[in-house]
């Protein structure tokens, strides 16, 4: 008799990413669930080493994949939350409930009453004034426009409204403020570049229009820098500057002196050290 318990009873279910969730707790839950799944897989491999791909093992693989994807979304959302300089999360536990409460407690006098319009009768409409001195309507009543749907920013959870924003491939929206914060962090940390949401890269054509000039320059510089392998980059040799200059030249290419526009120092394009005469050998070769 097979004493194995049902698969779903032995693993933790994956928790959906809630837009106002505690990301630290969600990340811990996902990592513990992954640990349970890995332990279950190890138990199956030891107990049934010759068994092929059973239903339980297939379900375990699918569940592990879903947990990894959900964990990546939690980590991305946590990074955005950390970069966003909005009020403390303790003051924003439930934005949706606060908005609903505000609508309910708002004084009725703040909203002007809407008076229903009488529909015109066809065949009796005429121009000008009739015998009774009343103006006859000859136009059809206009239908009230439907309210535009509100979208909340996944970073700060503020309603975006009609302002420009980014809608990612995974369906999340970012307002301009959170986009700038995300790009600023990505230009300083290569591990965060390019900006991503749920593990998917956000296209450059969607980011650039929302950036101010100074952030756009940093973003363009990061695109050029991070496109080059780390071992082939040349940075300014002056301490305290270390600005990215260009790609290193190889032994088959002529060595040049690269001028830094920030500190005016000159750097050898091959060894990355202080610029020197071409007659002198480089202290180290470009890797």
From TrEMBL:
Residues 102-150 are annotated as: Disordered. Pfam families: IBR (PF01485). Keywords: Metal-binding, Ubl conjugation pathway, Zinc, Zinc-finger. InterPro entries: E3_UB_ligase_RBR, IBR_dom. GO terms for biological process: protein ubiquitination. GO terms for molecular function: ubiquitin-protein transferase activity; zinc ion binding. Residues 222-282 form the IBR domain. This is IBR domain-containing protein. It comes from Serendipita indica (strain DSM 11827) (Root endophyte fungus). The lineage of its organism: Eukaryota, Fungi, Dikarya, Basidiomycota, Agaricomycotina.
